[in-house]
């Protein structure tokens, strides 16, 4: 039983409600989307096949309780749910960041599923699996990368139209800082009186010149 792994590294969690915590990242190879702003294109194809037991051993060697499975798109690999389950059974707190196009219920609900719903500027909003919104558990999170006002209005509409209502404290709006100043997104949120969370990529603030291993 194995998966194709792009990288495993120890860093600071930067993109969730767990931001600021030390975390071990397992970046899996492969993605079924090609978002316009993707900053991990190297994970599309680069990687090496590793037995699941070796991945778990390498993760545990860091002595860090928090682990995130990311990509690429982790759910593209059939054995990802088994990796998640193995790490949970070893006592880790496990997060999985997914692009929202595939069924998140393939993964153990003890895992925190961070669903990155695609906005129009990504070029991939037509690939969203909207059923995932109703699959979210209270511990899961919904994220939108915002590049312009159109994306912002798109995110607002999705949340407004979702029944039953989503806990807004678990909805993250993340500005693409190269395109949209965070202050502009903050201004829109304040004007609308929204209770979403403004979400910045903490690891890029700490290591602005480093693209990998953070």
What does this structure look like?
By secondary structure, this protein is α/β, with parallel strands linked by helices. It has a single domain, classed as TIM Barrel (Alpha-Beta Barrel), CATH 3.20.20. The protein has 6 helices and 9 strands. A 9-stranded mixed β-sheet has the order 3-1-2-4-5-6-7-8-9. The protein is globular and about 50 Å long. The chain starts with a strand and ends in an 8-residue tail after the last helix. The model has no long low-confidence stretch (mean pLDDT 93).
Structural class call reads: alpha/beta
Radius of gyration, taken over Cα atoms and rounded to an integer in Å: 17 Å
Average pLDDT for all residues: 93
Order of helices and strands: EEEHEHEEHEHEHEH
- What's the CATH topology label? TIM Barrel
Q: Tell me the strand percentage band.
A: 15-25%
Number of strands: 9
CATH homologous superfamily designation:
Aldolase class I
Strand order of the largest sheet: 3-1-2-4-5-6-7-8-9
Largest sheet: 9 strands, mixed
CATH architecture: Alpha-Beta Barrel
Helix count equals 6
Low-confidence stretches: none
Give the termini separation: 27 Å
Q: Care to give the gist of this entry?
A:
The protein has six helices and nine strands. It is α/β, with parallel strands linked by helices and about 210 residues long.
């Amino acid at each position: 039983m194995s998966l194709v792994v792009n990288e495993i590294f120890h860093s600071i969690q930067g993109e969730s409600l767990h931001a600021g915590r030390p975390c071990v990242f397992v970046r899996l190879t492969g993605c079924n989307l090609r978002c316009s702003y993707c900053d991990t294109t190297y994970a599309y194809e680069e990687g090496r096949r590793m037995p699941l037991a070796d991945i778990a051993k390498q993760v545990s060697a860091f002595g860090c309780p928090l682990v995130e499975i990311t990509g690429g798109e982790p759910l593209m690999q059939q054995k990802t749910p088994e990796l998640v389950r193995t790490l949970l059974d070893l006592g880790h707190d496990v997060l999985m960041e997914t692009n929202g196009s595939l069924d998140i219920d393939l993964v153990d609900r003890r895992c925190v599923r961070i669903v990155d719903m695609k906005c129009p500027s990504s070029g991939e909003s037509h690939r969203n699996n909207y059923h995932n919104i109703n699959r979210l558990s209270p511990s899961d999170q919904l994220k939108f990368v915002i590049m312009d006002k159109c994306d912002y209005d798109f995110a607002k509409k999705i949340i407004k139209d979702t029944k039953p209502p989503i806990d807004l404290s678990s909805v993250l709006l993340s500005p693409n800082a190269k395109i949209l100043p965070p202050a502009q997104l903050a201004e829109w949120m304040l004007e609308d009186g929204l209770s979403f969370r403004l979400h910045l990529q903490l690891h890029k603030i700490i290591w602005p010149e480093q693209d990998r291993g953070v």
